[in-house]
Amino acid sequence: MKHKIACTGIKPTGVPHIGNYFGAIKPALALAEEYQTRYFIADYHAINSMRDPEELRLRTYDVAATWLACGLDPEKSLVYRQSQVPETFDLTLILMAFTAKGLMNRAHAYKAMVDQNLQNGKDPDDGINMGLFTYPVLMAADILLFDTDVVPVGRDQQQHLEMTADIAQAVNANYGKPLLTVPVPLIQENTHTVIGLDGRKMSKSYHNTIPLFLPAKQMRKLIMKIVTNSQTIEESKDPDSCNVFSLYRLFASAEQTEEMRKLYLAGGMGWGQAKQALFEIMDNQLSDFRTRYNDLIANRDYIDQILAEGSARARELAVQKVGYLKKEIGVA
Length: 332
Ligand code: TRP
Known about the structure:
Layout: E1 5-10, H1 18-30, E2 36-41, H2 43-46, H3 53-69, E3 78-81, H4 87-96, H5 101-105, H6 108-119, H7 130-133, H8 135-144, E4 150-153, H9 158-175, E5 184-187, H10 216-224, H11 243-251, H12 254-266, H13 271-297, H14 300-329
Parallel strand pairs: 1-2, 2-3, 4-5
Helix pairs in contact: 3-13, 4-8, 4-14, 8-9, 10-13, 11-13
The protein binds tryptophan.
């Protein structure tokens, strides 16, 4: 029986790419070996900025199908929708009372928007809603509701986790007992940053991504566009500064990586050949994911069922936790 609990939220945004897979999805899923794992779709977080209902619905299915296709096992992990666990919002309101406004003023995302408004000569609060301002409190509730020990997140979420710990400690200090488990972040330091087509970090905002579920033909076309230098076929090539190699090693075993390294150094391998090898190893590994994803995304009823079942199980835990807290703080 695994005792420690890992929980993380997924915002329903964007088409997943190779960088998301190696940077977030794969490491978060690997925790299921060691922890009781909980993964949820943060749909109420999304409405702060996503106002088109059809788009939100589409992205929710998309992100659920993505994680399931990549190996999330709903039998072993709890998978749910934030909006289907309304105790989250009871807890959010309790936490609001313990959250200093000054703490929220310091949140990076909020501060960045204020700074941008000031730079543009606008009112500092322009376009900022209370959902955005109080985002860290809802996130703290997501985490604290399930007595979470560790939260796998990217470096950009570190401040949110510090705020979660601050808020939990304020509650515990007031009532003089550990009502809430103080979580720690599990920051996913990428062993190697996933490099995009142009050699910069793979990111949607650079338009240099390789989508995870792209059909084979289109994927091959993208791979052929990866930027390389102008060395001739005969020349010996440096694997460590090569964008093709940096992707290859993500998919390859240690032995395959070593073999490819030798081919680079030996000379005689052109960029077309290296790219073809990359395509083959990627297609080999991603074709199962792609098939599963396509099956899932065509079956919304099945996804609904998985999320409804997971949410019902999550609620059982949440009702207990919130019931206990309400008694302890005197509102029940
Ligand atoms: N803020 C996270 C992000 O932008 C998503 C998120 C919401 C989350 N609630 C969470 C992550 C709770 C971890 C735990 O990616």
